[in-house]
Fold this sequence. Notes:
Elements: H1 2-8, H2 10-14, E1 24-28, H3 44-51, E2 55-61, E3 66-71, H4 75-90
Antiparallel strand pairs: 1-3, 2-3
Amino acid sequence: MxxxxxxxxxETFSQRDPSDFDYMPNFxxxxxxxxxxxxxxxxxxxxxxxxxxxxIKDYFSDADRSVYAIGYxxxxxxxxxTNMILDARLKVQN
Length: 94
């Protein structure tokens, strides 16, 4: 499902590198709204968190906002996600 979502938004995703997801320090909690799998046009990051491809690394809160730092849980997940995306992008149609 992640590959399908990425492929729907090729322009946005093609400008990102897998290392962009290594550590994102200022992810607003409001972006973690429930993900509807029937609507594949929603943001990729919340789905990646729910699917376990990204995890919460740190949490910051003050009176005005709650912010999470998220990133890959480990090297194996990073490698798997990178390979999954590369396979989808480089697949040759016969």
